Amino acid sequence: MTTKSKWYHWVMVVAVFCVLDTPGHAYNTEGGRPHDTVPKFSASYTSCQEFQNFNFDEFTENKRFHLNTLCTTPYQNPDTPAWADIIKAPENFVECNGATIALCYYSGPVTPANAVGEISVPATPCVLRPGEDIADCTCIEIPAGMPYLVDINAILNLDVYLDTVNECGLSGRNCLPAGTKEAPVCKAIREGKLIPGADLISTFSFALEREIPIVQGECTDENYLYAGCMTAPCKRTETYDPDSAFPLVQCACPTFTGPFQVGRSITSNTPCDLRQVPSQDNTVWSAAYTDIDPQAACDPDRPGDDGCPILPPNYKETVTIPYDVDCRKVCSEYKQSNQNGIQVGFTCDATLCTDPSNRALWAEACKGLGKHSTSEILKLEYEVGYSCAASQICGCEPNKKTNEEIWRLNEAQKKLDPDVVTQCEYNGTLCGTEPL
């Protein structure tokens, strides 16, 4: 796998999401493409309407909307519909910006994800409706400003899907981040036209990754039921998780049966089939599936052995800046991660990857980073295959207060564990300055 594909690979092992409408339920076909129209270069694609036992009438009412009932993904026999959320290639994820979205990545069980340091993760269950064709998933609202990603195979508006594959190619390779164009699905989401009547759309975002680290769970049985929430329609609830500042929204995610991956640990209390556990109250995972080898790339900025290595001492001789990375944007993201005068992008890098056992310390050092964009930082680190490394590679400089905080955190790491080797000791970076 190339270094560039490392960046795209991580995006696709995360959990994703989906949408709804049934045969015979009203969606207006006047003036639009009929539901069985396909791009001329994909004429072998067939209708997956036999899978469909749901609708979006509660959102769309009489508004014009064509559900995408094409088999968008050559996967199994028969091929699979858009709401299966299948990912066959890294470029299947297209990058968008400029819209508030719902993040259903952590949704599924009644019980919340494990807390990380002092960060409380909200409970975000996906409760099956009668008939089990739709799950009502509680998801987290992510404000506009952060980039987000859409699985091109999971676009549930037929017209938008056809426009997007015509512009981006069936795989998505002609559009951002693999290509240079903005995908038409981005504009549809931004203008509120993807699922008419929805307050916002479920997609994937990196916004909370550092505060709620990813733990990949694998469920390989082909008989598992899961909720596909990518591009699902959502309604605001005007409620917040009582232990955090996260606004919670309600998304209607269609279900599919097959193997899947999730972003949480699979345990006896949260097994692949959540319906087996009475305390989980008839819930299912919000999930997706990819058969791309999860061992083919490391994941930057994951603590301990789960992540990529930190920069070696001779990194200036061995690491080059990828052609598609803008170091000005990287440094701008570090500077803008300002929390009370401390640029937490730098402080997080100084602790997260060198002292993973002291969770409270690195949670403190990274606190608030999820409120700021780190897309170019993560892109660089995925492409070069090193963790907590973007500021050093691009030569970004922290301010005085941040440098003093880095020095304090380095001292705290050594005090908590004398065997810790800080980046300052190992590669001569992120040393900070001792306060006077």
Can you describe this structure in just a few lines?
With 436 residues, the chain is of the alpha+beta class.
| Count of discrete structural domains | 2
Give the radius of gyration: 22 Å
Number of contiguous helices? 12
Report the helical percentage.
10-25%
Number of DSSP-assigned strands: 15
Strand content: 5-15%
pLDDT < 50 runs, ≥5 residues? 1-45, 115-119
Could you state the order of secondary-structure elements as H and E?
HHEEEEEEHHEEEEEEEHHEEHHHHHH
**Overall pLDDT level:** 82
Write up this protein.
It is a single chain. The chain has twelve helices and 15 strands. Mean pLDDT is 82; it is low at 1-45 and 115-119. The chain has helices spanning 3-12, 57-60, 158-168, 184-190, 315-318, 327-336, 344-351, 359-366, 375-384, 390-394, 400-416, 423-427, and strands at residues 86-87, 93-96, 101-103, 126-128, 134-142, 148-151, 200-205, 217-219, 225-227, 233-240, 247-257, 260-262, 289-290, 338-339, 342-343. The strands form four sheets. A five-stranded mixed beta barrel has the order 3-5-11-10-7. It has a two-stranded parallel sheet with strand order 1-13. The chain has a two-stranded antiparallel ribbon with strand order 8-12. The chain is α+β, with helices and mostly antiparallel strands. The protein has two domains: 3-290, no CATH class; 304-427, no CATH class.
Keywords summarizing the entry:
436 residues; alpha+beta; disordered N terminus; two-stranded parallel sheet; 5-stranded mixed β-barrel; 12 helices
